Amino acid sequence: MIKHFITQAHGDQPMLRGPDVVLCVPSGATGVERRALRDAASNAGAKRVWFIDEALAAAIGADLPVTHPMGSMIVDIGGGTTEVGVISLGGINMSTSARVGGDNMDEAIVAHVRRTHNMLIGEATAERIKIKLGTAKMEAKGKLPQTTVKGRDLANGVPAQITLSQDEVAMAIAECVGQIVQVVRTTLERTPPEIAADLIGTGIIMTGGVSLLPQNRYCPDRSHRFAGEYRRGSAELRSFGGRTSPGRSCLQAAPATSLDSRSV
Ligand SMILES: Nc1ncnc2c1ncn2[C@@H]1O[C@H](COP(=O)(O)OP(=O)(O)OP(=O)(O)O)[C@@H](O)[C@H]1O
Ligand SMILES: [Mg+2]
Fold it and tell me: Is the residue at 264 inside a domain?
């Protein structure tokens, strides 16, 4: 995959020497994992390999003022990990990484359907259910959306079909949502007060596929700008709109000081 991206980045231009490659890594990546990544990139033809924290790369891609003496917070909820980073002066001031994300939600939906409907579904089906009906917080009013789910009946082994409603899905993924909120909360509690104060103005930027869950879904894009309103005892992050485009050309803009090749 790395080879493919290197070739794609070079286009038709001849490659006279191996390129310098910058890889995003979760802040919690171990030395062994980083070494494995470095080896993979070198084997793919990279001359020099640099690492950048995923949260910092997302912040740069989202056009946050990462080099300013002002704090910004990124919450990147991916398939396997949730990364929370507080960034100021071109570096990560505080970061937390937890191995919880969309895949855990899929597993929770599989387990819920098996437990309550005695039916087995695959993880791909669970992911479709999550994307269609998943929500970080239930809307109390109105008729709840439903979907038909097909799988295998565990009692007699034949194909079966059930109807699943949004409240069931919300209940199934609630524990994962709670864990993600806890990661954000823990990071906020460890953030120095001056930087925490900045977050009232700059808000919290959410990126990663799972940030598209409704009740996160205030904007149609992968990046959601939320007001940094954080109430103790409440999991609420309030939207104030704003749309950015993380990921694109973020590495061009990366300040040299933020690239860490010594971390292996
Ligand atoms: N519309 C959506 N609603 C909810 N979840 C979604 C949506 N679209 C994608 N996802 C979920 O987002 C996850 C993938 O997100 P992303 O592409 O950011 O992960 P990743 O960067 O590959 O993973 P990681 O950062 O953990 O290495 C998957 O679990 C996927 O099911
Ligand atoms: Mg990711």
Answer: no
